[in-house]
Amino acid sequence: MSLLIRMHPDDRSALALWEIDESEKKLRADLDLGDFDQQRLEAITHPHKRLEFLSARAALAELGVSVSHIHYTPHGKPQIKGGFLSISHNHQFAAALLHAEAEVGIDVEDIRRNFEGLVDRYLREDERFIVEDDPSIGPMKLWGAKECGYKMHGRRRLDFKEHLRFGTRDGAWFIDVLKESEECSGKVEWLRHGDAFVIWAVQWDNPT
Fold first, then answer.
1. CATH topology (fold) of 1-101
2. Span 38-71, pLDDT tens digits
3. CB 131 within 8 A of CB 140
């Protein structure tokens, strides 16, 4: 069993964390992929990337999502009828987040990943305190929150430094999308499980 966590961050959402340790044969046998996902899988040639793709769908299935019903916006954001979802994966873990009422974004990282180069490139001056206050985890929070904001927003052409701002408001953490005419905000939470760092954002207001 590759499921590490299945939890409800609140009464309208569900989250699953999956460890990538099963074979492609086993994953494919357990999943009923839709036609478009089947085509996407066949286009992936790297064996481990195929496992990551399938494991993210396995995490969704653990939340009760019929993966054969996943469809995508013109910008590539996954969708299902009657809810909002987001997925993430890396070489070791996959994660999925489902929400009944609001757009969401999720990111999963290996706690051992080095983020120094990314932080130098995408850090805003008003975000510097996040890294300075917590040099070990702060860079991962910053990058993960921006990934979540990008996914929650669900459209392309966002600059991670110019358009995405991570910070606090009224004692809570938020990721703000600052692109004109497409502004929105998401409340950010995170957890650590072994070597997995999971961070997610739930839209806090309606996009303009």
1. Ribosomal Protein L22; Chain A (3.90.470)
2. 999 999 999 999 999 999 999 999 999 999 999 9
3. no
